[in-house]
Amino acid sequence: MAARRHEWELSLSAAEVAEVEAAVAALLQQAEAGPANADGGGGDAGLTAAAQQLLAGLTPERFPLPTLGPRLAALRQELLHGRGFALLRRLPVDSCDVVGLLCLREAASGGDSLLVSADTLFNELRSAAPHLAARLLAPMPHDRRGEVPAGQLPFFDIPVFSWFEEQLTVFYQRQYFDSAQRFPEARRLTEEDVAALDALDALANDSRLNLTMRLAPGDMQWVHNHNMLHDRTAFTDHPEPGRRRHLLRLWLAVPGARPLPPAFAARYGSLTVGDRGGIVVPGMQLTVPLKPE
């Protein structure tokens, strides 16, 4: 088991850490020196909205990593076409830009990350109860939770599992399917729908099928969102604000990713590979907050 564990861990060398720090320093210098910083701000708390947008539009060309870059490219291939997750270790937490889920501080106890393969879940369910697996291939109402594009309903219909372009793609957060029932115009879930969702939850929580991963400060988790389900255990936090659990998360549209089924347009907006950044709602502005909000 120890050998298998190291297969999905990538530890940064001192040279690779220095490379990341140099790229971060150059980018922040560019952000702070330009017109975006005309209000006199400085440091991570003083970056203006325009400077944050500069970070939000980050590209590999503007963040050169000549040594680490090829390793990250291989990691991307593993995320999209291999096991679907990875853990990047030994990244120093000194206000640097991040991709994925970066742990700055752990909780006092709990808060472990849980991962499970969508392929495994579907195959297990299809073997045990094929009629329930079939239900999860049919669209169900999903709550937008307030992220409603102009002219759209407050929910949309999407299946949990989609077979598209010879790949099984998952889209699942149980409470959003449940809460969509608050809208009178949404289709009512049938007893068989609920049974299928319950069966999927039971499988996802089966310790034989899922993987538990604890992130320490400086650890960064990468998960392929279309073929893995991820969650966390309950946690107890430290009473002092400066010691409380703190993680940074970023969702990425990755070049080379799989094509998504048409039903995903209701949630993702654009389905263009590498340019599907989610739903845009009125008044939304992309920013990169560098302090907890």
TrEMBL record:
InterPro entries: AlphaKG_dependent_hydroxylases, TauD-like_sf, TauD/TfdA-like
SUPFAM superfamilies to which the protein is assigned, alphabetical: Clavaminate synthase-like
Segments forming domain TauD/TfdA-like: 97-251
Tree of life domain: Eukaryota
GO molecular function, one term: oxidoreductase activity
Protein's UniProt keywords contain Oxidoreductase: yes
Database matches in Gene3D superfamilies: Clavaminate synthase-like (3.60.130.10)
Protein keywords: Antibiotic biosynthesis, Oxidoreductase
Any one GO BP annotation for this protein: antibiotic biosynthetic process
Protein's name in the database: TauD/TfdA-like domain-containing protein
Organism the protein comes from: Gonium pectorale (Green alga)
